[in-house]
Design goal:
There is one protein chain. The protein is built from three helices and eight strands, in the order βββαααβββββ. Strands 2-4-3 form a three-stranded mixed beta sheet. It has a three-stranded antiparallel beta sheet with strand order 7-6-8, with no helix packed on it. Strands 1-5 form a two-stranded parallel sheet. It folds into two domains: 89 residues, Arc Repressor Mutant, subunit A; 40 residues. The longest helix has 20 residues. The chain is α/β, with parallel strands linked by helices. The N and C termini lie far apart (60 Å).
Length: 163
Amino acid sequence: MPRPRLRRRVRYWKGITHFKPAGIRLAELEESILTIDELEAIRLCDLEEISQKEAAKKMKISQPTLQRILASARKKTADALVNSKAIRIQGGEYKMAAPRGPGRGLRRGMGPEEGKGRMGGKAAGPSGECVCPKCNARVPHQRGIPCIERKCLKCGAMMVRAG
């Protein structure tokens, strides 16, 4: 009985499942299926120009295994480009790597505290309103100017972000 395949480590995948020639409906095209680990091998070796040895370390596989994955991915991609096939990206033996960052815990991007802004709430983004806490006057938020730096036109108090 052969041993089970190891899962390849994948750090980046946008979730795009198809790539096809323009102007032709997907239903009318033949498909080449590219696995997610094959896409990661192409990304590391061809796009980021990392050596196969380093790419294999990042994917937690041996260099000969990476070379086989890369050869398969390049063959499928070339076939799709030359023969006007759609590329479907799916499957494979892979595991998504945890994103690098400051770690887990309060305001570290994990769990219920995810997305906390500097002021203790969710960052509101470029749209929204600034509100006066004294007279409740509202003005549209201007991008690049924090509400806390604006004075109310009616009473002169410092504004806060509506939320």
